[in-house]
Design a protein that fits this description.
Layout lengths: L8 H17 L1 H14 L8 E3 L2 E3 L3 H14 L3 E5 L5 H14 L3 E6 L4 H12 L3 E5 L5 H11 L7 E4 L5 H11 L8 E4 L23 H11 L3 E3 L16 E4 L3
Parallel strand pairs: 3-4, 3-6, 4-5, 6-7
Antiparallel strand pairs: 1-2, 7-9, 8-9
Helix pairs in contact: 3-4, 7-8
Length: about 250
């Protein structure tokens, strides 16, 4: 290929945007991606990865997507609900260092396990990650978030990956949304539940019609100062965040 055949930067950006739009509109491709997700879950695909040596329960598509969001937003603070094994918090901390020149991460969970605390010890000792045990939809969570943000007025990133019932995610959104600055982005995890087979979550309290996506949809109807962030909401192919990334556009 000659130099004349290689698209310049502006042309390449236009091409990428057109590819993204076409992929986002493809129902057939999304159907196949969900089918692949179901098949890969037989091997616990989402549990196989690590970030900086710490297990991260996240699909690679969504890890790269979060990098793009943090690079664009350049926040100094990230809040996560749902700590699990700690890898997502380490991802957020390293992305803050890479994209923003540093920053701090707050993790909230109703129970933080001992093995997670051990894995996160270097980040805890260096005050890069802060942890609190509480219900992420509670008034206690609000207190911790206010203390964490202090007087920060710049956009932040929030990742909600805790209890996936409609009620709990709705309550998280209602609790956290008023506390974050305009321009902030909220990633709501596991909106893919709405697309999975009807009986897939028979042993869980969530499923089709009762999940993070239904909570996001209700929240957006009632809160005009938030909108779905079209830059990101359909970017991942094998991703769990589809239609679950929202932007605070006003007070």
């Amino acid at each position: 290929m000659s130099d004349n055949e290689i698209p310049g930067d502006s042309e390449f950006n236009l091409l990428r945007n057109s590819w993204r739009l076409e992929m986002a509109k493809s129902k057939h491709l999304r159907k196949k991606a969900v089918e692949l997700t179901v098949l890969s879950n037989q091997y616990s695909y989402g549990y196989q990865w690590e970030w900086c040596g710490v297990p991260i329960i996240r699909h690679p598509d969504d890890i790269v997507l979060q990098q793009e969001i943090v690079w664009s937003l350049k926040p100094s603070h990230i809040i996560e609900t749902g700590v699990a094994r700690g890898g997502s918090l380490v991802l957020s901390s390293s992305l803050l260092n890479l994209c923003s020149g540093g920053g701090v991460v707050l993790g909230l969970d109703i129970k933080i396990l001992d093995h997670t605390l051990q894995k996160l010890q270097p980040w805890l000792e260096n005050k890069l990650i802060y942890l609190h045990e509480c219900d992420s939809a509670s008034s206690t969570a609000s207190t911790h978030i206010k203390s964490f943000l202090q007087n920060n007025s710049k956009p932040i990133l929030v990742v909600l990956d805790s209890n996936h019932t409609h009620e709990h995610v709705r309550n998280e959104l209602n609790r956290i949304a008023p506390l974050i600055p305009v321009g902030s982005v909220i990633i709501v995890a596991d909106t893919i539940i709405e697309e999975m087979p009807a009986d897939y979550y028979s042993n869980r309290p969530w499923g089709i019609g009762n999940n993070p996506l239904t909570a996001v949809n209700e929240f957006l109807k009632l809160n005009s100062n938030f909108q779905r962030d079209e830059r990101w909401s359909r970017r991942s192919l094998m991703g769990e965040f589809r239609e679950g990334i929202i932007l605070k556009n006003a007070i």
